[in-house]
Design goal:
By secondary structure, the chain is an alpha/beta fold. The protein is 37% helix and 20% strand. It starts with 7 loop residues before the first strand and ends with a strand.
């Protein structure tokens, strides 16, 4: 068994990780691709929990800009995260990975209600746990939900999966001279107002000394390298 840098992780995925080329909807092929990435880490003996966003199904910002009530828009997004969790669960189970979906908003016909001890028990039994429904409260992003759940399950790190290979001082897509950070302190991350992760989530992690590891999940073996302690992405911590 290899030496693990992280023995239990909370993987934070954007909803777009399940979408097709348009960035919207759910593509079962992409769900299975994500599942294979998670399976590779689970087979190393890592306990894995996942929080996924809903940007591929609903963008609350657009509704709010049209005058929609903020809480209503957020609840719609929470329901979208449950749909994505169920799609990812299907992908994982097609890959032979035992999985459970727990949701902060009760939907007993399709998922278990979120109970902290139950979630930990599932992981102890070797199951991947998917958390749907965000925190169950409006006004909180799924980044913050990820940080909260990571601390509740005693994760060693929250791994934020993005489309870039870490955190840069500028947008690398438009500035080829942008500099990548290997490590940032929580305060540096907050002062730079990083778009890659919500500031409330960073503050919550700082207050509870939870490591944030930002990486590109589309790069081959990036997640495996992170849990093995190999240099990949950007670490935000002390």
């Amino acid at each position: 068994m290899p030496q693990l840098n992280y023995k239990r992780i909370l993987l934070k995925l954007g909803g777009e990780s399940l979408s097709g080329p348009t960035g919207f909807g759910i593509d079962p092929v992409r769900a299975e691709y994500m599942a294979e990435r998670i399976k590779a880490v689970r087979e190393l003996g890592v306990d894995v929990a996942v929080v996924i966003g809903a940007g591929n199904l609903w963008r609350g910002r657009e509704g709010i800009q049209k005058g929609m009530d903020r809480a209503q828009a957020d609840y719609m997004g929470m329901i979208g995260t449950v749909m994505n969790a169920l799609a990812l669960q299907d992908g994982l189970e097609r890959c032979g990975v035992d999985t459970r979906t727990l949701t902060a908003i009760e939907m007993r016909a399709v998922a278990e209600p979120y109970i902290r001890r139950r979630a930990i028990r599932h992981m102890v039994k070797g199951r991947v746990v998917l958390f749907g429904g965000g925190t169950g409260n409006p006004y909180f992003s799924t980044d913050t939900a990820g940080a909260l759940r990571a601390m509740e399950i005693d994760a060693d790190a929250m791994i934020k999966a993005t489309k870039v290979d870490g955190v840069y001082d500028d947008d690398p897509a438009t500035n080829p001279s942008a500099r990548k950070f290997d490590h940032l302190s929580y305060l540096e991350a907050l002062s730079r107002r990083l778009k890659v992760i919500d500031s409330t989530a960073v503050s919550l992690c700082m207050d509870n000394n939870l490591t944030i590891h930002v990486l590109n999940l589309w790069q081959a073996d990036s997640l495996v390298k992170a849990v093995l302690g190999e240099p990949v992405g950007t670490i935000i911590g002390r």
